[in-house]
Amino acid sequence: MSETAVARQSEERDDPLTPQFVRQVIDALDRGDGDQVRNLIAPMRPADIAELLDLMRTDERRALVEMLGPELKPEVLSELEEGVRDEVIALLDPGDIAQALAEMDSDDAVYLLEDLDQQGQQEILSQMPADERAALERALEYPEDSAGRLMQRHLVAVPPFWDVGHTIDYMREAEDLPDEFYEIFVVDPAYRPIGTVPLYRVMRSKRPTKISDIMNTEQTLIRVDTDREEVARLFEKYDLISAAVIDENDRLVGVTTVDDIVEVISEEATEDIRLMGGIVNEEAVGDSVALTARNRFSWLFVNLLTAILASVVIGLFDATIEQMVALAVLMPIVASMGGNAGTQTMTVAVRSLATRELGPLNALRFMRRELMVGVVNGILFALLIGAVGGVWFQDAMLGVVLGAAMIVNMVVAAVSGILVPMALDRMNIDPAVASSVFVTTMTDVVGFFAFLGLAAIWLM
Amino acid sequence: MSETAVARQSEERDDPLTPQFVRQVIDALDRGDGDQVRNLIAPMRPADIAELLDLMRTDERRALVEMLGPELKPEVLSELEEGVRDEVIALLDPGDIAQALAEMDSDDAVYLLEDLDQQGQQEILSQMPADERAALERALEYPEDSAGRLMQRHLVAVPPFWDVGHTIDYMREAEDLPDEFYEIFVVDPAYRPIGTVPLYRVMRSKRPTKISDIMNTEQTLIRVDTDREEVARLFEKYDLISAAVIDENDRLVGVTTVDDIVEVISEEATEDIRLMGGIVNEEAVGDSVALTARNRFSWLFVNLLTAILASVVIGLFDATIEQMVALAVLMPIVASMGGNAGTQTMTVAVRSLATRELGPLNALRFMRRELMVGVVNGILFALLIGAVGGVWFQDAMLGVVLGAAMIVNMVVAAVSGILVPMALDRMNIDPAVASSVFVTTMTDVVGFFAFLGLAAIWLM
């Protein structure tokens, strides 16, 4: 028996969603062969079913959900991409969803509900038992992306004077425990957390041991209104598995667990990458052409305006260019090098601000370093490109102008690469959102202006 | 008592490293006041001490480490930035480090050792007990960034026929258990994993319950040579807390826990952001000017070559520009819009490839969508900029040329934004490394060529 179990598990290690498998499911759907579809889906883990639904076309997805109906496990819903999830929920019976939610841990239930519109939420909530409903409504009142939304309400809390034996007996008998937990919380009579005991420590202690003797008093407490990005930072810094969430009166109201944090870290990183790449709105690989084109348009429009601004700067020097067309040939080099150097500095600044490696304590040292790097690389590339330009057009003075403009623009790139993200951060705007457009506008405008301006003065 | 405990913990919630506190430590260091320094450091958590060390200047750091000496907790070392860690380890006595490593969980010990050079590793390993030493040497033989490096060797494994009572008694008495654990592994006589039991389930079951009756047989097994990025993906997908690591004979050799995975996810995201921003080598905020300038140089040099290539393209049309200087004014708009549109597509492609949202199953659909988005936005921006250019220079035909070049370049941007990252991924090169330089070179060259080429044909 163990032989086959291992063989089966070995297969599970590899991605179960092979193209062949997906084809089988879609063929069975096309044939309307419900039994075959259910046979194929039955052994799959919820996360794999979710991935399958994410990958399908809208019409295939609809067919699969309608064929599975209430057999679709509720755990699948919380693993779906946001857009797909809303689509699938709309296909299901609100009564079935209400029942599934009532059985879920509260954090998963909130996760499913929070992205639905007001009406969708009400339709489902109205069919839930009164107490579950009240709890979810309370959770939905916390600000979006706060610890209150992320936390799970069910937890194990015991007084410090209990012993291990009593605690274990309580856990064996209690009804309202979370599905999964890794720590128990120790609370005072006012239900304020005073310590935690990891389960392995409970397990390794003798029954008469007092809880207060084995608890960690060094806890990381999270306020219910803390932003989830900050929660993630605390989990990462202190290697936490779970953490108590407290309200404004310091009372224990929930627990955040690391499985949700893993998702937060990954989502926040995706968000930063997306924003820095000029994707302003959330996007999924399965979005339609119309939605995607509209989402991308706004950013490109902003870029069009900044590009026109750069052109206006060039236009100021049209007479100069007319006299010496080599300037038109060489000017993009200065702008492009500045843009790349500025992007480097900005990238380090944005990410270090996000991970808190950059803060008030070392900002000055960072600025000084980046400025010096700009000067050093500015001089090196000025020598390189000055020589290239001078030889190419047989004009030493043109090389000097090119080199001088390069130094100016690399230094401006460094300065704006630091100051723009730090200023945005100070104003509580995510520096990933807008840094790159400001920085490259600066380096384009300054690049063209410095090069053409110096040329007008020194070469004409 | 609980009153003060809560007050203390409330303060702990906020960042303990205030500028005032850091100043106090540095002042005490400057005065050589060892008692004061030790008093300030004593109540700090290891992660906070590490952050303090990360933030300090090299000379301050050296002073603090020398003042603390063997009082510096070994847990601090594993929380330090890589560059800082190597620096601190060099300041400590190899014998002290060897002793600290011998007491650590094996994954933390490997983490500390793996970045040291051969000589540094040997110096420490030679002072460790033979069995600990052999185990670490074995771990260091696994490929870098593999599950073998990440895993922890100590774990709790029991046979399926044990009952809960026996298991709990075993855990109370065993010596060689990991510092922290959340699941126990069930193994067959050949030590192959056949299931897992989360601790909370052991705890909630009566003593006579058979382990085989409460174990999950649906496990996620990780091969010892799996890349850590893939391990992280499995943890994220299946919401794992820990997972069994097996060797080539399917035997259980270790366990990977989610606290290490949290770090991996964050590091891999930082790496992608860094690479896409043109930072080719790892960088820390505290690196020196010389190191940083050298690290950034190579990427800027590649960019210089591509910028010169774009200039050569412009140079082909110098006679055309000489006749009509408006072309020089407008040409950067076409290149810049293409670069931004290409970067958008590339960003989505690179991130979706990394998170596996984009794969062979939906690649074709994604390509088709991006191409259509390029066509749609290309036409919209062609109309916009065509009108602007035509009015600006009072030349309708110039507007037509500008619009046509815009469509061409936006479509090229979409195609290269998809194909470049997918091709790199196919060749097992991280698409984040080189995509942006290929894509923007394409859009620069094609942008200038299309605009100036069409102008030479239609306007001259």
TrEMBL record, chains A, B:
Its main location: membrane. It is found in: Cell membrane; Membrane. It holds the Pfam family MgtE. It is a multi-pass membrane protein. One of its GO terms (molecular function) is magnesium ion transmembrane transporter activity. The chain crosses the membrane at residues 297-317, 371-393, 399-420, 432-459. Keywords: CBS domain, Cell membrane, Magnesium, Membrane, Metal-binding, Transmembrane, Transmembrane helix, Transport. Residues 215-271 form the CBS domain. InterPro entries: CBS_dom (IPR000644), CBS_dom_sf (IPR046342), Mg_transptr_MgtE_intracell_dom (IPR006668), MgtE_N_sf (IPR038076), MgtE_transporter (IPR006669), SLC41_membr_dom (IPR006667), SLC41_membr_dom_sf (IPR036739). GO terms for cellular component: plasma membrane. Homodimer. Belongs to the SLC41A transporter family. Acts as a magnesium transporter. This is Magnesium transporter MgtE.
